UniProtKB/TrEMBL annotation:
Top-rank taxon: Eukaryota
Organism: Trapa natans
Record's protein name: Protein kinase domain-containing protein
Pfam families documented for this protein: ABC1
UniProt cross-references to InterPro entries, sorted A to Z: ABC1_dom, Kinase-like_dom_sf, Prot_kinase_dom, UbiB_kinase
UniProt xrefs under SUPFAM superfamilies: Protein kinase-like (PK-like)
Annotated family: Belongs to the protein kinase superfamily. ADCK protein kinase family.
Domain Protein kinase: 203-533
GO molecular function, one term: protein kinase activity
């Protein structure tokens, strides 16, 4: 990638305005290299031969070299600090003056805020002033430094701790810390890598092109290859500063747990979890490994870009990463000047976020606009992999089931889902929560689910969580924040954009094709109600699922087929037999009705004993219902048949299943039922009995 000047908006980790010097596009040329050992890629290898052997050997050699370089980087980071409450207690327990000084600074800042809250409460203005106080808290966190900036950003994802007004203010929290001297940054690079600066880079920017709470970023060009890279350097003394703050905050957490009843979550546990994540961010080798894992899982799509890591020039405090030219996702005008559409990029982000949450369970936990870039080629680039999280496997399926229960307005099941999602401990009674869910969602669901505004749902659900003893897991809070951020970006481009509408094809595809028992049951729950099959739901699922690029017609409904013929499928078999008879009757009688309509009216009257409507004795509503059912079934088959991935092999599993004893029994029961039904119909036509709706269609 050629070196070229870029704006702050196209830089990595661009989270706040920089000085004029930092925006200078020229690079400083460093002196000729001094004597030093420079780790570099091996010289050019011979071209690949037709038999592919050389290509394979090149790949193996490159992989071996990469593993070796990564091992060296890990060795350089072997002494990276990890979070340990016990070690912090040992370190700062013997330094009372330092602890007291910092504690006083924090106490004055947060104490004055607490006094204002008490005054608001005594004046009855606690609700009226929530927005104002949220803004003040955001500014206090910024003044207190990196630890509190991170805490504020973390709190912005916790609807169980903060009311919505605070969440919105803290979501806007940005790093606004001064840069540290470039001489210290360059000395850190040389010290960490054991190489002179000019032996590594042929050029490096004179000042940082981006800054964050934990470090700052330079643009450079590698000497050995000419590759343009981003070099992130950790802020000096940051471990000491953050360690002291978390030592004090953890002590405050014990006090809150004991005396503050309004907060139902275990504050100390939340602090420990969050502190562990922040300390992981201080190890840049771990961030590099996170980026590699994320790239392997999600950069298989052409529209997703994840920069690569240069292990030879990475350590615990220095991260060298492939440079990405691009524009921050919230800069709509700049994106459109490149001929790109913000909504296309947001849709890419939504689909990638859903895969992160619900497929592999490994996701980017800090997806603010500064970490999402639109490249000139129209790809969405993810940056900054210091803070990652994982979704438990059980929760991945439970979230999809939760969406099904939302569609069905089954609030009792929704409340029970919170056990599987780990929102509630098993001993909590969910019955009082059900009315709160019903009150909110009955209002929200006046629109269809796909038309709902995601932020409205999150805010409403957050209000419920805030009132009841919920403990929202970090993974769930972070992914809600991710989708809310993406929807917010899209709303700038299109006020009518709905993130749930963009997400629904993915959910439909998973329900139709995933063999997971939980999802299989959720699909059956969605398709069957009161002993009747809901063909409109199946048609809608297929229409939505086909919009997902990974939808496979061959896999659609296979989970249900397997359950149908399994040992526990008798209840479902009874429903399917009944529905198969009803559909067959609709197809046969609908076709007879259509055929009779091709006969002239006067002949139809003569042929059918004066019945101008044809050979069928049934009321108009019944006939109309049968034809609608037949047409709907034909449309569903058309959706499957016209799918890009359709293959006649779709029928093969069904044909194979028909050879099995259970299937033959099922087929016999269906055939017998159809025979009886049609015989009854025929007798009805012969005897011209009064029309009445068949019992199977009721």
């Amino acid at each position: 990638m050629a070196a070229n000047s870029v704006s702050v908006s196209s830089s990595l980790w661009a989270q706040r305005p920089l000085s004029r010097t930092a925006r200078v596009s020229r690079a400083v040329r460093v002196a000729a290299p001094r004597a030093a050992i420079v780790e570099a890629s091996p010289p050019g290898l011979p071209p690949a031969r037709d038999n592919g052997r050389v290509t394979l050997s090149v790949a193996v050699a490159e992989r071996a070299e990469d593993i070796q370089a990564e091992s060296k980087a890990m060795a350089r980071a072997v002494n990276a600090t990890v979070y340990s409450p016990e070690l912090l207690a040992l370190r700062y327990g013997s330094r009372p003056i330092k602890v007291a000084t910092r504690a006083l600074e924090i106490l004055i800042a947060l104490g004055s805020f607490g006094v204002k809250l008490l005054i608001d409460q005594s004046n009855g203005k606690i609700d009226q002033n929530k927005r104002k106080r949220g803004g003040e808290l955001r500014r206090i966190f910024t003044r207190l430094g990196p630890t509190f900036v991170k805490i504020g950003q973390g709190l912005s994802t916790r609807p169980d701790i903060c009311p919505p007004e605070y969440l919105e203010e803290l979501t806007e929290l940005q790093d606004a810390l001064p840069t540290f001297p470039d001489t210290e940054a360059f000395a850190c690079i040389e010290r960490e890598l054991g190489l002179s600066l000019d032996s590594i880079f042929s050029s490096i920017s004179p000042s940082p092109i981006a800054a964050a709470s934990l470090g700052q970023v330079y643009k450079a060009q590698l000497r050995y290859s000419g590759q343009v890279v981003a070099v992130k350097v950790q802020r000096p003394g940051i471990e000491e500063s953050i360690g002291l703050d978390f030592y004090l905050i953890r002590g405050l957490g014990f006090f809150i747990n004991k005396y503050v009843d309004i907060i139902t979550s275990d504050v100390v546990a939340l602090i420990d979890e969050f502190a562990g994540r922040v300390f992981q961010e201080l190890n840049y080798v771990q961030e590099g490994k996170n980026a590699r894992r994320f790239k392997k899982l999600y950069a298989d799509k052409q529209d997703v870009l994840v920069p690569d890591i240069f292990w030879n020039y990475t350590s615990g405090k220095v991260l060298t990463m492939e440079w990405v030219d691009g524009v921050k996702l919230n800069e709509q005008e700049a994106i459109e000047k490149q001929g790109l559409k913000v909504l296309d990029l947001v849709n890419t982000g939504i689909q990638c976020s859903l895969r992160q949450l619900l497929e592999y369970g490994y996701f980017h936990a800090d997806p603010h606009p500064g970490n999402l870039l639109a490249t000139p080629e129209g790809r969405l680039a993810f940056l900054d992999f210091g803070m990652m999280s994982e979704t438990p496997e059980v929760a991945r399926s439970a979230i999809i089931g939760h969406v099904v229960h939302l569609v069905n307005r089954d609030y009792e099941a929704m409340a029970r889902d919170y056990y599987a999602l780990d929102f509630l401990s098993p001993d909590v009674d969910v019955s009082p929560i059900v009315p709160a869910l019903r009150d909110f969602f009955d209002d929200a669901l006046n629109a269809t689910v796909s038309e709902l505004n995601f932020k409205t749902l999150v805010d409403g659900l957050g209000a419920v969580l805030y009132q009841y003893p919920f403990n929202v897991p970090a993974y769930y809070a972070l992914i809600l924040r991710s989708l809310t951020v993406l929807e917010g970006l899209a709303l700038y481009a299109d006020p009518d954009f709905k993130v749930l509408a963009a997400s629904y094809p993915y959910f439909a595809k998973r329900l139709l094709t995933d063999p997971n028992p939980y999802l299989r049951d959720a699909l059956i729950e969605l398709l069957f109600k009161d002993g009747r099959f809901r063909w409109n739901r199946l048609e809608n699922l297929l229409e939505q699922g086909r919009k997902d690029r990974d939808f496979s017609a061959k896999d659609a409904l296979q989970p249900v087929l397997k359950l149908l013929l399994g040992p526990d499928g008798e209840e479902l078999r009874v429903l399917v037999i009944k529905e198969a008879i009803r559909v067959t009757e609709a197809v046969v009688l609908g076709s007879v009705s259509d055929a009779s309509k091709s006969i002239p009216d006067f002949m139809r009257t003569l042929l059918f004993n004066g019945n101008a409507n044809g050979p069928l004795v049934m009321n108009d509503n019944e006939l109309k219902g049968m034809i609608e059912l037949r047409d709907q079934v034909f449309r569903i088959w058309g959706l499957l048949r016209t799918s890009e991935s359709f293959d006649p092999a779709l029928l093969q599993p069904i044909l194979q299943v028909l050879q099995e004893p259970e299937a033959r029994s099922l087929g016999g029961r269906v055939a017998g039922g159809i025979t009886q039904r049609l015989a009854a119909r025929l007798l009805q036509q012969v005897l011209r009995l009064p029309s009445s709706a068949p019992s199977s269609t009721s």
